[in-house]
Design a protein that fits this description.
Number of helices: 11
Radius of gyration: 27 Å
CATH topology of the largest domain: Muramoyl-pentapeptide Carboxypeptidase, domain 2
Bound molecules: zinc ion
CATH architecture of the largest domain: 2-Layer Sandwich
Strand content: 15-25%
Order of helices and strands: HHHEHEEEEEEEHEHHEHEHEHH
Number of domains: 3
Strand order of the largest sheet: 1-4-3-2
Distance between the termini: 43 Å
Length: about 350
């Protein structure tokens, strides 16, 4: 916009751009645009469609939110990159987090719910001693239950973020990749050599619950292979490569550092044979594991997404909210497809 305005000014005048011309052609239109966008932003209550305001300049609606303000001139929202992260069910004192050392505490405006995972676009409003109001936009991110990312380990600058093809947030912390807080190990994403020692605590607890639930249906659930270290995976993979070929091994065995077993969130259950799907225990797992937060990680016919052939025995813990989504009434959605990530080796 700015470029086109300047361009127009140059074409029209072909003279020197005077100060008055600059104000008329550039600054005034810009102020009008900023004002409209600012008001539109403040009035949007729908967090997912901030630019979708049908009536952004309506003076009536503009005054509604101004009632508490002494000053009728509503300042524009200053967008910040501040993200406050928490997990579903764990509330945070937002004002304290935002005010920091500043004794001048503000207020938070906008709708959010600590009991509902999501990304909330909110506003932090402060008023200084001269009654000057400042509105800063910030993001509250409430992660799903069952995430593996330890939010307390995030400090400014110690991690990198990226956005997946489906708009989800990836965080890389200590060479481990988390998408929306879930650790990812597949053909694209690795975990470091020394990562992990055992099944993750939450995964183990969920598994124990599932065992008890299965027992009520007279089904035994047991772990054939749970946590596997980098070294163990290295031995397994190399054995397959020597016995068959690397190309063949890559269809069912992960290269060291790429195995989900090393994350401590995955396990091979009951019987490592495709015929598990026809047995009562295999059928029970397929239909019930999601209720305990487990997903069938490599579903049938999804090789192109997961990078691996069908494995009716391999389950991954992701918490009940995401597991229910991925279960999809039995038509399993893969983590790769849901988050919009790949599972491909570089070579
Ligand atoms: Zn497995």
């Amino acid at each position: 916009m700015l470029e086109s305005v300047i361009y127009m000014a140059k074409v029209k005048g072909k003279k020197r751009l005077t100060k008055v011309g600059l104000i008329v052609l550039v600054i005034i239109p810009l102020l009008v645009i900023c004002g409209v966008v600012g008001i539109g932003y403040m009035h949007s209550k729908d967090n997912k469609s901030l630019n979708n305001n049908s009536n952004p300049t309506s003076p009536t609606s503009a005054n509604e939110s101004n009632n508490s303000s002494e000053n009728n001139e509503e300042p524009q929202v200053i967008e910040t990159s501040t993200v406050i992260r928490t997990k579903v069910g764990e509330s945070v004192d937002l004002v304290s987090a935002l005010a920091g050392e500043n004794p001048n505490k503000g207020t938070v405006e906008g709708e959010y719910d600590f009991n509902k995972s999501g990304v909330y676009k909110l506003r932090y409003v402060t008023t200084d001693s001269n009654s000057k109001k400042t509105i800063q936009g910030f993001t509250l991110k409430v992660y799903m239950d069952g995430i593996n990312l330890d939010l307390s380990k995030l400090t400014p600058g110690n991690y990198k973020t990226f956005t997946t093809s489906k708009g989800y947030e990836g965080i890389v912390l200590n060479d481990v990749t988390y998408i929306e807080g879930f650790i990812i190990a597949n053909k694209t994403y690795t975990v470091p050599k020394d990562y992990g020692t055992s099944l993750e605590k939450e995964t183990q607890a969920a598994f124990d619950k599932m065992v008890a639930g299965a027992k009520k249906d007279n089904i035994n659930v047991n772990i054939q292979s749970g946590f596997r270290s980098y070294e163990t995976q290295s031995r397994i993979y190399n054995r397959h490569v020597t016995t068959y070929s690397q190309a063949e091994a890559d269809t069912y065995s992960a290269r060291p550092g790429h195995s989900e077993h090393q994350t401590g969130t995955a396990m091979d259950l009951n019987w490592i044979k495709e015929a598990l799907e026809d047995r009562a225990d295999g059928k029970w797992l397929f239909a019930n594991a999601y209720k305990y937060g487990f997903v069938l990680r490599y579903p049938k016919g999804k090789d192109n997404e997961t990078g691996y052939m069908y494995e009716p025995w391999h389950y991954r813990y992701v918490g009940t909210e995401l597991a229910k989504i991925l279960y999809n009434d039995g038509d399993w959605i893969t983590l790769e497809s849901y988050f919009g990530i790949t599972s491909k080796y570089n070579d």
